[in-house]
Amino acid sequence: MTDGTDHEPTPIEVANFDDPHLQVAAVDPERAERAIAVYFFIGMVGMGVFGAAYWQNWKPWTLGLSLGVGLFFIGFGLSAWGKYLMPQGPFTEARHALHSSLAERDAIAAALTERTGVVVRRRSMLLGLLGAGLGIFGIAGLGFPLLRSLGPLPGKAMTKTNWRKGSLLVDANGRAIHRDEIDPGGLVTVFPAGYENNDATLAIDQTVLIRAQTGPLVTEPGRATWAPDGYVAYSKLCTHAGCPVGLYEKELRLLVCPCHQSMFNIDNGAVPQFGPAPRPLPQLPLYIDESGFLRSQSGFDQPVGPGYFER
Amino acid sequence: MSPVPIPRTKREATQARGPYGRVGQIIGELDDRLGVAKGGRTFLDKIFPDHWSFMLGEIALYSFVVLIATGIFLTLYYEPSQTQLIYHGAYVPLRGQRVTAAYASTVDLSFSVRAGLLMRQMHHWAADVFLGAIVIHMARIFFTGAFRKPRELNWTIGLTLLILSMTNGFIGYSLPDDLISGTGLRILFSIVLSIPFVGTYIAFFLFGGNYPGTIIIDRLYIIHVLILPAIIAGLIGAHLFLLVRQKHTQFPGGGRTEENVVGSPMYPTFMAKTTGYLFMVTAAITLLGGLAQINPIWQFGQYQPDKISYAVQPDWYMGWLDGALRIMPSWEFTGFGHTIPFVVLLPAVVFPGLIFTLCYAWPAIERRFTGDNEIHHLLDRPRDRPKRTAAGAAMIALMFVLLGASATDVLANFFQVPLNEVLWTFRILVLVVPPLVGIFVWRICIEMQGGGADIGKRKRAVLMSRSATGEYTTVPTAPQPDDEHEELEPIPVPVHIELEPSGNGSDDSGVRTVTR
Q: Are residues A48 and A107 in the same domain?
């Protein structure tokens, strides 16, 4: 390059221009050039409008429209330039086999085998100790502590809620629920008093309280006292995938989960009537205290929410 | 090479540059240090096939570029934190409400940062386009047999890219901490819980405790903006490196053989076309982001664990998993003091695991059944491999049925039919449609192979005659000499390309001699 020689003309066989694929601009090149110029100009205008829109803080859609139009016509012009005014070929490139010669393959295989053989045969105890050390480091030094420090062990966390014997039912604003307050067909999400403002606990404690009717409701044998005055309470966590069972079909007396459409019949202990939920929603036993407010007789008699191995 | 004197005057400098001026000088300096001339020239000559289906992967690549660019913009304003605060920002209806910093910062970057809404919507649209392009690109690779030896490794990398991108898409969708994305996280927690033996522990480690915890948004953020993008970018690099190393596949015909690659050279033709294409893909995403609203989180509201919205659907690429969750029968095993919720475990863990394992194993499966261990650079036409084409079509059909199943509630509402019937329809369709589609496609492939399969590209030779009453009849016939598809002999890449030929003024031989 820099020595100033070797610039003699070298004849090279190229480009049969009769080949239709190689004709530069099968269309009229000047027409193509004019068209591309127009595309680039529109692109320029689009970019200019985008700049103005950004500067003047116009509505977001004007930003998107102007930038999109600008980008599109610049790109369209560039592609058209490539398609109509640049050589199209077909050109070829030879494809060479990627593999090496058999001798070269044998050479590397032999080197690997022989050298490894020397190492392993003579020093197998050292290798074993090295492997054991690295393995212990991986498990006891890296893997386990890293994983373990990410979070606490589950322990009893999955089985506990904050519902206790005598817990006062309150709504999201902390208001207690009086026995005369809800008409039949009404529904409110309730929490044990004192836990209604805490995301961590209300995720587990959330319970739907439905006034099913005016008289007591017996959802299952043995639950005669659980729904006084027709107030029935179920865990709001779907037993399928844990979504809040937030819809209530008043006419059908069904609780519906909006995520995967499991439906629970409130009259028979929230047995799933439809959809993927495998278990009934746990029922919270209620009573009405002497001032007429709703309280829980106890906590839930089983873990709430979706299934898990230790359940 | 003799020592090169350092030029002292302007004249000497000009002389030293040689006949190619500054370009020659820069190349020379670079080549002295890095040895770029030979490889660089080969790179300029790299041939890209012109078939349209080769640009599907480019759409994916360029939407990834848009994702990175818009994503960097978003990181400047987004605050990955579940810290509770009272909203005082730009969106008036939300003022005074209790929100998290993540949600508040996402709403504010949409409303009070200039072009923020455009960037956020472009980011979301780019993710949807990215995943769509990957899937369609993979379908092309699959149906044309481009995954065969020697390209199995690149199929594996591509599939890994799909899985990582799906994961990162889901995580990104969760970051705004709005009502719908939070519900998605709740379902994720339940899915992890369903894994026997270790599920509860993994869930607690992932979320830093029982759901919802206080740290999941922070963790998802660093996975979303650093860990997964770095892995994805690295794998894209490996994907492209293998593509250059192994060179492109191509369809047979037109002088294309196992020993060559036919198409346009890297420079200038392909570079101009593909850069233009980068701009056009970006333009499409910009227009979507500017004109088509996506994920208006201020309408959904802040996520609260006891709140839920109607018609909760994930982004389209997670729809098949949601559909599988919906139509699964409610099986749960209880015994020996343990519970295994098959109703979640099978559709959300085992099923995608099987699907992706099948995809990973497909090149090996096909090699085993066909006994074909040859190196292939020429692509198959899908009709010529009826069983593979049928298998791929059945898989796509399965995915579409499941995607439809993720909208059971919307469909029931729209068509005013009972949800129960919609659900049972999909339970039947998911078993019936894939085999039917497979058999149908297999049959069509066989049909299409018949007759004039070897004539031209798409033509089937017929003799056409017209009766006295004006009725036309066609009779299939043997190939005629004129039916042959025009075979264009490709030519080696020229060193010197004349950009403005004067008419067709070549010499008599039709071969032009140019000087270098």
A: no
Q: Is A64 in CB contact (< 8 Å) with chain B?
A: yes
Assess whether A223 and A271 both reside in one domain.
yes
Domain membership of residue A7 (yes or no) is: no
**Co-location of A292 and A181 in the same domain:** yes
Q: Is residue A119 part of a domain?
A: yes
End-of-domain residue from the set A84, A111, A138: A84
| Phi and psi torsions of A170, nearest 5° | -130, 155
| Strand stretches in A1-118, DSSP E | 12-14, 91-94
* Interface with B, mutate which of A2, A30, A169 (most B CBs under 10 A): A2
DSSP H stretches of helix in B50-198 = 56-75, 101-111, 116-143, 152-174, 179-193
> Residues A165, A292: one domain?
yes
Q: Within an 8 Å CB–CB cutoff, is residue A5 touching chain B?
A: no
Contact A200 B512 (CB under 8 A): no
Range with the lowest mean pLDDT among B106-115, B127-136, B490-499?
B490-499
pLDDT tens per residue, chain A (311 residues)? 344 444 444 333 333 434 444 444 456 778 889 999 999 999 999 999 999 999 999 999 999 999 999 999 999 999 999 988 888 767 888 888 889 999 999 999 999 999 888 877 778 888 899 999 999 999 888 888 888 899 999 988 888 899 999 999 999 999 999 999 999 989 999 999 999 888 888 899 999 999 998 888 999 999 999 999 999 999 999 999 999 998 998 889 999 999 999 999 999 999 999 899 999 999 999 999 999 999 999 999 999 999 999 98
Domain total in chain A: 3
pLDDT of A55 reads 95
The secondary structure element, H or E, covering residue A67 is helix A60-84
Q: Rounded to whole angstroms, how far apart are CA atoms B331 and B247?
A: 50
Secondary structure class of A77 (helix, strand, coil): helix
Q: Are residues A51 and A113 in the same domain?
A: no
Cα(B382)–Cα(B142) distance, integer angstroms: 9
- The model's pTM is 0.89
Q: Comparing C-alpha atoms, which of B318, B301, B127 is closest to residue B224?
A: B127
CA distance A223 to chain B (A): 23
Whether A273 is covered by a domain: the verdict is: yes
Q: Which of B15, B121, B344 sits opposite A240 (nearest CB)?
A: B344
Domain containing A69: what range? Answer: 20-84
Question: Tens of pLDDT along B382-419?
Answer: 999 999 999 999 999 999 999 999 999 999 999 999 98
State the pLDDT confidence band at B503, using cuts at 50, 70 and 90. very low
β-pair partners for A293: A178
- Residue A165's CATH number: 2.102.10.10
Same domain, A262 and A173: yes
| Residues 6+ away with beta carbon under 8 Å from B190 | A240, A241, A242, A305, A306, B344
Are A121 and A193 contained in the same domain?
A: no
B469-494 residue pLDDT tens: 777 776 666 555 554 555 556 666 66
A42 Cβ under 8 Å from any chain B Cβ: no
Burial (CB count within 10 angstroms: exposed 0-12, middle 13-18, buried 19+), residue A14: buried
> Are both A120 and A25 inside the same structural domain?
no
Say whether B330 and A277 touch across the interface (CB within 8 A).
Answer: yes
Q: Is A13 within the bounds of a domain?
A: no
- Structural domains of chain B, with CATH: 10-44 (no CATH), 47-310 (1.20.810.10)
| ipTM at complex level | 0.89
* Helices B179-193 & B152-174 angle (0-180, nearest 10): 120
Residues 6+ apart with CB under 8 A from B231: B164
A78 within 8 A of B272, measured Cβ to Cβ = yes
Which 8-state DSSP code applies to residue A22? G
